[in-house]
Specification:
Oligomer: single chain
Strand order of the largest sheet: 3-2-1-4-5-6
Strand content: 5-15%
Number of strands: 11
Distance between the termini: 38 Å
Helix content: 25-40%
Mean pLDDT: 92
Radius of gyration: 24 Å
Largest sheet: 6 strands, parallel
Number of helices: 13
Structural class: alpha/beta
């Protein structure tokens, strides 16, 4: 099968991905593949996902192209299968069984393209007692034990936005799985299904903590451990202006530098003596309360004390280090994170802004050698069991 080359760039140039429109971790995973150079065609539904966000500002749809397909219309499934036949990867985030009922499940796609990597993004996974239940990030991370680790011991667990479950435990594991399966498909000619469940990925992220728990080096409660805020030299402190500083002075030499700059050299022995931690926390907190965040930032500038200001989303792009690296960039008038990671020979870049639904029907038909379909008409039927209500926030 000859593939028309599109001017993509990046290490995944030439890889074709079909994304069945969803919300949350699926679109983010597809964006990551697109950032790395894959030709991602998003299959949007008539009317869109209905999330209330302006498509022109939905950064997770950058670097993609879009066609509109009504999967409930008689010709809808065939159009998706035409794409799947020419693709390397397909990503969907429906509840288990929905893609099969729509006629675009793994068996349907593999009948047309045995080499296809079929990526499935859900919260609970394709099997298990909760597989058919609705859910969102917070519920998935709650059951894995990770949510219960976060926050102060005398307050409810702190909610880490939807970064831990949807994107770390979900999107990134889907991308790793898809790329591993793609490597296998190219070596053997055989595709496979990648079952990326947020509960699995989030649990996997806690591997080191489970090792520490087994070794007796971690207590199964919040705010009592080295890395969960229980340690006074690994945590956050309020400053005089109501902002915060982050401290991670774990190693003895970094801890000594931290105390020296804070003016608390007499507390050196508290590093390894947990009985001294309450006094250490109290005195460190009092010191930070004496100056503003920017004043303390200046004090720790250039040191190895492992102390940093806690910045807001709008402040972060202006930090000198992030600005020098180009960690954030402007594209189409939107400040946004730049593609990551970085490659020496095949750099990734933002080629296009957020795609408008259906904007690329003609171009995709030409580049993928597809017949040009008639403009889709919305189906009269209601949406089946809200197939997008799954692993997203």
């Amino acid at each position: 099968m000859t593939k028309a080359q599109t001017p993509q760039g990046g290490p995944l140039a030439g890889v074709r991905v079909v994304e069945l429109a969803g919300i949350g971790p699926g679109p983010f995973a597809a964006m990551l593949l697109a950032d790395l150079g894959a030709d991602v065609v998003r299959v949007d539904r008539p009317g869109g996902p209905g999330l209330g966000i302006d498509p022109a500002r939905d950064i997770t749809h950058r670097n993609k192209r879009s066609v509109i397909v009504d999967l409930k219309a008689p010709e809808g499934p065939a159009r998706v299968l035409d794409l799947a036949e020419r693709a390397d990867v397909l990503i969907e985030g429906y509840r288990p069984g929905v893609a099969e009922r729509l006629g675009v499940g793994p068996a349907d796609c593999h009948a047309r393209n045995p080499r296809l990597v079929y990526g499935r993004m859900t919260g609970w996974g394709q099997e298990g007692p909760l597989a058919d239940r609705a859910g969102h990030d917070i519920a998935y991370i709650a059951l894995t034990g990770t949510l219960g680790m976060i926050g102060d011991p005398d307050r409810p667990p702190a909610v880490p936005a939807n970064l831990l479950g949807d994107y770390a435990g979900g999107s990134l594991y889907l991308v790793v799985g898809v790329l591993a399966a793609l490597h296998h498909a190219r070596a053997t000619g055989t595709g496979q299904i990648v079952d990326a469940a947020i509960v699995d990925g989030t649990a996997h992220l806690s591997a080191m903590i489970h090792g520490m728990l087994a070794a007796g080096a971690w207590q199964d409660r919040r705010g009592a451990n080295l890395l969960d805020g229980g340690c006074p030299y690994y945590g956050t402190y309020r400053t005089a202006d109501g902002r915060h500083m982050a401290v991670g002075a774990l190693e003895p030499r970094f801890y000594a530098e931290f105390l020296r700059l804070l003016g608390l050299d007499d507390l050196t022995e508290a590093h390894g003596d947990v009985t001294c931690w309450p006094e250490l926390r109290e005195r460190v907190a009092a010191r930070f309360e004496a100056r503003t965040r920017d004043e303390w930032t200046a004090v720790f500038e250039g040191s190895d004390a492992c102390v940093a200001p806690v910045l807001s989303l709008r402040e972060a792009p202006h930090h000198p280090h992030l600005a020098a690296r180009g960690t954030f960039t402007d594209h189409g008038g939107i400040r946004q994170p730049a593609p990551a990671p970085r490659f020496s020979a095949t750099p990734a870049r933002i080629r296009t802004g957020p795609v408008r639904p259906g904007a690329d029907t003609d171009d995709v038909a030409r580049d993928w050698d597809l017949p040009r379909p008639a403009d889709p008409a919305p189906s009269n039927s209601s949406e089946p069991s809200n197939p997008q209500r799954k692993a997203s926030s």
